[in-house]
């Protein structure tokens, strides 16, 4: 993909391309008009008549455009008709050449791209609401755009594959998604896409090319330092380079899953709690069995396999590695092969193993390994790597214990960060807790809210986000979390949501705060629950009438007139002056 042209006017581009046809057409019209003025007309009142330039231009104009009103102002002479015949064929040649040039120009790739760029730039320039710049509209990019659309946030997409850009029109997004087919690694492209736009609140680089993602991270750091960047990196060198430029969030899908696997082996309840909190809102989380300890088999020692091996080593799990190119390290047992046949699996001890990781770069090989291994050991815990979303039906039909889809791993991580930045420190706190605490919290939360992934939202108690609550707190009123999380329609009923984390400016952070916890001005609450309940919380903290009903049961009058009348009744009358 070539760099975008710097022209800003399609009109002048068209004029440059049609310069020769337009000049030819003008010259032919000038010759026809001039010849018609010189041709002698009929004799009128004893004098030979001639057409003026205006009449000649008028006649040639409607004749050359095939309209043909007739001969003016008098019937033409034979000389004039002879010249008109010559002019007609002359204009046909000129129009044929001009129209052919126009059609050729319309099919020109450069012009179509220029028109698309200009239309895209206008769409981005007119955005007045916060938006994310999404670079790459593959499997992960599509998941992110759908999630942003559900959260009511706008997205601008840059994708190098024209076919994927065309898929945007097939998805029923609530708001239009401006998209440009271009190389996201080009800084000029990012400028066109709104990187320096005042409403741009983040850049998400999700392409399959680490070099492009790195270029996006560098451009974001230098051109828009205030805009946070969330970038995908599958190689450690790329991640280190991004970190050196101050990239806030760097996601390696294989590293993230290896951390999740290590957590599942070490603390399965904590892993389930995090899966429930970071999934796609509204989807049902399946209660899977926990990965067992014991002997494991790892098929494939590539980038994914190395991360899995590191996770298992951290939990002291014995592993046998099956790979076409064994690299004995004196620590693990190695078997040469690809694992698709029974011989290599039997040699690796599949009959007595507790789990297997099918982690090659081929979806076909991974499914073959999984099916063969399950036939040799029915109780085997199977983790399968799915490389392409197009093979989802095959992996769903197999029903592995865990299916690793890199695009989903990245998507869930992005959603955890985008939904609210406060979720990241909360998840770090969860990882540090013991298994019993995570198990009790998982049982309590799913008991109240079910196993469907909840909406996650944060609310800052300040004058702009929570004016009603903030004013009461500044007056010294005591308001607790339990008093606040009540239904606006029935204050005796508790809302279907939970406060997961409370962050304060003095670094006094509370994890799973109790209902009796007092709220202070400036607090930020991380909430999880149903969307309707979280909307009710937003209404309560912002609306004085709703908050008054929640706290005291008092139903204040609404509207300016009724409020004035109510205050007038409440003010005691003064005694008349003596």
The helix content is 40-55%
The strand order across the widest sheet is 5-4-3-6-7-8
Q: What profile does the largest beta sheet have?
A: 6 strands, parallel
CA(first)-CA(last) distance? 91 Å
Count the beta strands: 18
Shape: flat
* Overall mean confidence score, pLDDT: 85
Radius of gyration: 36 Å
Spans where pLDDT lies below 50 across 5 or more residues: 1-7, 565-578
Helix tally? Answer: 24
Structural class by SSE content = alpha/beta
Beta fraction? 5-15%
Set down the secondary structure blueprint.
Layout: H1 10-17, H2 19-38, E1 43-44, E2 47-48, H3 53-64, H4 78-106, H5 109-125, E3 131-135, H6 139-150, E4 154-159, H7 162-167, E5 179-181, H8 187-192, E6 200-205, H9 210-223, E7 229-232, H10 236-244, E8 249-251, H11 253-266, H12 268-278, E9 296-299, H13 303-314, E10 319-323, E11 333-336, H14 342-347, E12 355-358, H15 363-376, E13 381-385, H16 392-398, E14 402-404, H17 406-419, H18 423-432, H19 435-449, E15 455-460, H20 467-474, H21 481-484, E16 497-503, E17 510-511, E18 524-529, H22 531-542, H23 544-552, H24 560-570
Parallel strand pairs: 3-4, 3-6, 4-5, 6-7, 7-8, 9-10, 9-12, 10-11, 12-13, 13-14
Antiparallel strand pairs: 1-2, 15-18, 16-17, 16-18
Helix pairs in contact: 2-3, 2-4, 6-17, 9-10, 11-12, 11-13, 11-17, 12-19, 22-23
